[in-house]
Each structure stands twice: as structure tokens, then as C-alpha cells.
User: What shape does this take?
Amino acid sequence: MADSIIIFGGSKKTRQEKAVEFTIKIFGKTYDWDSMSKNPDIRIIEIPNDKKSIGIGDVRESTKYLDEKPFSGKHKLLVVNNANALTREAQNALLKTLEEPPSYVTILLLTKTLNDLLDTVVSRCKKVQLSIDRSDKSGSKEAEENSYIKILSMKGGERLDWAGEYSKEEREDVVELLEKWVAESRQMMLDSPSKSGLENLKLLCSTIKELENTNVGLRLKLEALVINFG
Assistant: This one.
């Protein structure tokens, strides 16, 4: 069942859920994201805690792992979470394996967009696109508490408290929330244009760009964002 597949779009959670679906189909057993790594025939590559990217060393170690026969069954699975964090060198090191994985291997690359990957990587993989829901119509208490409108209704101290707490989330989750705020902000601008709304939108977009492209601290950046909302 050799395959190389890119799962893109959606949110980090939905990409992981789709990876779990593939895992259940491949191994014929029930898994969730946390239990997958307990199977010796499944390897998940994550961004190291002390780094911003996945380097060539991580890829080379994993391709050697794939060259070994399965430990307990007929299949092996490699999942690259946040494949967009693979360095250019790491992606190039993965090319041959993506094009011709061993017959017992499936490789899943999870990424926000295809633009984050080299064309040579994308061309060697099947694609599974997930829908992106920026509106967050779940109606959950958590969604309501973290909405753009809710933050705007808070006083300065409350905003800082919120930022301190939410900065404990993973960077990608924070970026996804801010992208939902962009959608909310744009809708508010359509309904009732204002100078402060436009400035908030510009601030949101610049903050997202910084979080995606630099190592700026999450807490400090979130605090600066929410405290400067008009």
C-alpha cells in the first residue's frame, strides 16, 4: 500500500483527524492521535521543542526507519506533522522516498497550504484537501470566549489576562485563531466601516505574518496585539 499523501487545508485538528482516519484504514485498528505513536510501525515527526523547523537530520533518521521491515505487521506509516516546517534541505532529502516508498510504507504530510512545500515534493504526492471554516459556527463556549468581538468588549487588564492564558497554546493554533479574527474583522468592516476597524485589521495581518515567519514570543505578541485594538 505504498503511498505518499499531502493532507492540507482545514485546521491542525482536522488534519490530524484525517491522518487518524488513514491510520485506522491502514492498520485496521482503532487509534487516536495520541495513541498512534505507541505503535512501533508508526513514526510521527514533529518540530523539535527547541527549534522552529524540521531539519535534514530528522528526515534522514526517518527514511532509515522506513527502510527497515515492519516490526509487527505488514505496514509502516510516517506522518510529518507541520510539514510546512521542513527545511528546503529536509524536503529535498525526502524526495526519493516520496516518489518510491517501500511497498509497505505510507507517508502523510500534514500542512496548512501547498505553498509551504517545494513543487517537487507536491508533484510526488497525492493530495487530500480539507475545507477551511474560518467562521467557527460551533457555538461552543470556548469559541465564544475567544472570539474577536469578545476580546474587543474586554478592558485592558482582561485582555492581558486572556493573552497570557492563550499564549500557552501552540503557535499554529494561535495563528488559526487570529485568521478567524481577520474574517470577523472584515465582516464588521463591511457592516460598519471605521478607522479603528481598519487599523485592527492591519494589526492582525502583520501579527500573523510575524508569528509565521519569526521566533517572536507568543505572549508578548498577543499582549501587544490585543492591548492595541481600538
About this structure: Strands lie at 3-9, 42-45, 76-80, 105-111, 126-130. The chain has eleven helices and five strands. The longest strand covers residues 3-9.
